[in-house]
Amino acid sequence: MRGIFPHPMLTTALFLAWLLLAGSVALNSIVMALILATLIPLATQAYWPGRPQIRHPLRLVSYIALVIYDVIIANIQVARIILFMPAERIQSAWICVPVDLPCPEALALLAGTITLTPGTLTAEFSADNKALLIHALHAPDPDATRDEIKSRYEARLQRIFR
């Protein structure tokens, strides 16, 4: 099966993404999703020399649920900041977050999580991929924000990936 599906997780993600984009589970959508989910990983496998080793797939599901929850809460917090906080009280900050993740996919997932969460944005990776530069809309205590990212997201990603 590895010959046909060199990256099963990518195949699954592409399949589900296509069905979500199509907004239908009709036969033609399923066939197109299957074609794309098969051909794209085959065409790009040369660019993926290593595969991330996911130690605990159920923890990945839990992580995704956590991120969805955090995105909802962050939307409410950002709306409150923008609508009710005087501009002079908003304390934007650039925060350097040191990271120690086992693979580039985990690092990309962390950066994507930060960017998806309203009020924060991953601006840059360090050359050695050992730090992320984050911009926070409102971070009165940048150290606490850094520590929250490390404990809430990075620690979970370290347990998910080998």
UniProtKB/TrEMBL annotation:
Q: Which Pfam families match?
A: MNHE
Topological type in the membrane: Multi-pass membrane protein
Q: Does the keyword Membrane apply?
A: yes
Task: State where the protein is found.
Answer: Cell membrane
The protein, known as: Na+/H+ antiporter subunit E
Q: Which family does it belong to?
A: Belongs to the CPA3 antiporters (TC 2.A.63) subunit E family.
Mainly resides where? Answer: membrane
Membrane-traversing stretches: 12-40, 60-83
Does the keyword Transmembrane feature in the UniProt annotation?
yes
- Which of UniProt's keywords are assigned here? Cell membrane, Membrane, Transmembrane, Transmembrane helix
- List the NCBIfam families: PRK08965.1-2 (NF006518)
